[in-house]
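I'd like us to work through together how a protein chain folds, taking it slowly. We need material for that, and I hope you will provide a protein of your own picking. Go ahead whenever you are ready, and we will take it from there:
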Amino acid sequence: MPKTKKQFNSILRKTIVFSLFLISTIIVLLLYPKEGKFRYEFHKGKPWMHENLISPFDFAILKLPIELDEEKDSLNNNFKKFYKIDNQVYISEINKFQKDFELKWGEHLTKYYNISFINNGILSNSKLLAKKKKYYTFCYNILDYIFSQGIIEEEVYPSNKFSEQLMLIRNNNIAESVVRSDIFTINTAINYITIKLTKPSDSLTYASRIEKDFFGSIDLNKYLVANVFFDDETTKKLKQSLIDGISLTRGMIQEGQKIITKGEIVNQDKYRILNSLKKEYEASIGGTENFYMISLGQLILIISTFLILFFFLKNFRKDIIKNLLKISFLLMLILIFVAITSLTIKINIIHHYLIPYALIPIIVRTFYDSRLAQFILLVTVLLIAFITPNPFEFVYLQLITGTIAVFSLATVQRRSQLFLTSLIIFLTYSFLYLGISIMQEGNLENIYWKNFVWFAGNGLLLLSSYPLIYIFEKLFGFLSDVTLMELSNTNHPLLRKLAQEAPGTFHHSLQVANIAEDVAFHIGGNSLLVRVGAMYHDLGKVSNPRFFIENQRLEINPHDEIDYEESAKIIINHVTEGVNLARKYNIPNQIIDFMRTHHGNMKVLYFYRSYMNKYPNKEVDINKFTYPGVSPFTKEHAILMMSDSVEAASRSLKEVSEESITALIDRVIDYQIKEKQYENSDITFRDISKAKTVLKQKLLNIYHVRIEYPDEKK
């Protein structure tokens, strides 16, 4: 029955894996645009390597993106912004002026002519009426002229742009081109009023001090309010109209016309024509009648690419194929970037160079290894290359940059690493693109410099890898180096608990961590992971610390007071106790696995042999003396088992020497091999041999064993 269940689970897992790859294939196929592909590959600045090309149909010559951008930039630079005069401001301020003028005129009459403003006799004084009219007209004309020219706020339109022209919409809604200096600001309007009042025109002269006093009482400056405002709606509407009116083509190619001959250099003009033919050709064969054949071709390419990924995982990363969560994560990561690229190319608002493809190897490297990170990047880039323009350029840029990202960010342990990697990615993109562009253009003038802005944005988006790593870590139960660094902090609550309640075990764990880390470094394991696993592996001993020899400070041994079966139970329980405590504190499963595997499924030999010696004729229940864990199933687990056993056994050596340490290491590890503890892990005999050498050197350093020099011959 167990065998049948195991077979059923294996078949079910394989079916799910197949389904995941099938679903991924269908999603990518749906994301692909249903258009044909131009059969010829060409690059600017390189010779045409195919047969002579004759136009198969009439088509328009499309302008290159850089040419369209230059025309748009020229339009933007020469476009005159639209401003509008608000007549309500003029009406409001003139009304204020009229009321104030009547009030000031009345005060003027009372002060200098001893005539009350409300005296009816004043109305018969024609001279005063004429003077009032003349004064009013003079002031009114000043304000009327200023408002008719327009007053603009200095902050809205800085003075250093006085020579620039703009479009001014006046009362009749007809725009006219004016020079910026012809429009007043508050300051220039004040200067204008000052000049007018100090240098009266022929129609007005200061007859006496009385008139000067009157004009001094009229403060025309307080009516100066901006009445010219930027018309954003009209500006945008007309600018967009002009941009939409830019012609996308420049000339036509007739059917049967020769386009290029074999060996001819693809210059700027030829590249423009070939690019136009390519787009027209791909659009023309993307109709309904070709839909199914195009889809079939795309399906073959997608299946081939995913098959490469499947066989790579099957041959080199079987642990991922066996883990549905891990394979789902990798396929999801590929699909996300294919979908983002497809959407970006479809909406054509931003360039796909802005997409941070280097995130792929960074994220995969964080949870796995560099080789897998490189391969996932390769598969993703190949799938995307089928839908991007200039696929060779795209593949070259992304593969080189992705490789640099893996080299520059081997581990994500410090935030400063990510900033440096972002800068390196930007410089790598820029350097490679500059080389490609110079090769294609032959000069620096025609390089599409705007792409460098996209590269800069790409580098900035790489900074999102920290939050993304955290999200993926929580969603898929992964373990990053950042989390490992946090767990290795001895101020972690569990490690503090271990140090306080079982100080001997805590010291033993640190010693094992140092040894195991060095072993992992020399045989190619994850040294940070095995170090953290070693620090937590004996956590369960806090439940009964005095029953473990490293925590015993007195001559009294509590095991002397209980039978061997009970002693074995207490020793064995530290594994399950540690697992339960770790789960209570939300320690990742990858660390808990070290607790479950560091004794494997071996026996508690001391108490087992003691029991056998005491009761030689009594049948023994072997399960009572056997650890409930599983044998190591990773290289890191095996390293911890070796390091833990050797370090603990070394404490019992009566005589510490190079020979005794070597014999101890061989005896402990050979026994573990005999018990088949390493069969499920990916550790080799060569690794074990190297591990023995490192363990020997570490113990010699710990116990300060010196080499014994031979006596001098006499």
Notes: The longest helix spans residues 2-31. Strands lie at 53-54, 59-62, 82-85, 165-169, 175-179, 228-230, 249-253, 258-260. Residues 585 and 678 are 29 Å apart (CA to CA). The chain has three domains: 78-241, 301-476, 481-702.
